[in-house]
Specification:
disordered N terminus; four-stranded antiparallel beta sheet; 2 helices; single chain; globular
Amino acid sequence: MKKSIRTLVLGFALIGLTLLSSCALPRINAQQRTFLDISLEFLGEYELPKMKFQDTTVGGLSGITYDRQRDRFYAISDDRSNLAPARFYTLNLNINNNKLQDIKIENVTFLKPNEGETYPKGTIDPEGIVLTPQGTLFIATEGSPRELFAPFIGEFDLKTGVLKQNLPMLQTYLPNSDGKPQERGVQENLGFESLTVNPTGSLPSTGEPIRLFTVTESALIQDKDPPQKDEQGNYQPQITKSRFLHYLISDGPPIIISEHLYPLSPNPPGAIYHGVTELLAIDQGGHFLSLERSFGLTGFSAKLYQIFTGTATDTSRIASLKGEIKGIQPIKKQLLLDLQELGIRLDNLEGITFGPRLSDGSQSLILMSDDNFKEEQITQFLLFRLKSS
């Protein structure tokens, strides 16, 4: 019986190939196969007023994720338990007539390493947040070699904020703890800012594994290349080698599937800080949005890229990416939007998420800024429509 089925399938396949060969198919170049044909339409901005909520200072919002079932957003504060215990907020965004009309804070949840205890001051730096189909939150923390706490990615209970598990971490990301000058691991304040999961639908889990992704904001210590000068003695722009991690989370212990080289664009002219602050998975085929943010003498700037990981080399067994790297295919990138072209003042954009469907059925996209708890900065929300051809 099985042999008959295989014969039948093979027959249909041969017929299909014959039909395809007789049709005049449009030519598709490699660039079109690699990147999706998408664009963004800017719909407006909203500035969240400075405020207190339940004895906490609302600010430092560095990551955001959308709960489609409840039509609510969860935003992580990067407060290192300094002004209040490490926490995330539940937000209600009122999007009406394709405009962001209002934002209300409905709840604050404190992160806890165990039941009944919040994180002590200076032991955690939460930056990225993403909701899972199981109704839990994964939160990425940057780590601080200077303050001697390591980066980690943990799964937290949505209702209680209690840590459920930590994901495994490669030694290459962990600063050496032998008292010597740092030789490996994340740089200070340049660890894990980003976090995203593959779209798996909006219903609770049916047993499908979660694929979770993050990328370091900048290069690891052991991957930093020294500045290069040209013959005239001028420093040349360089590609920074960030690392992109891919986790698989299922019934067994979480595992790291792969790691790839993410080519961070050269620092814009005059930039003091420059890094990748967020990722957002578009589909299950290796397409993502990445947000690169800069700060310099002229203020903040940001660019959104579409990236593709499908052809990238696994670098998880390479201790150092310093110097010329032969035989390694990096993640592919394509500029989607330079946000300076919007003609508005940009703040410290660090969060990105899909939101609800707009009135015409199209997909909304929301960016959010981290005000660093500074009076001169703002918590800014930008609303876009994602368009595809």
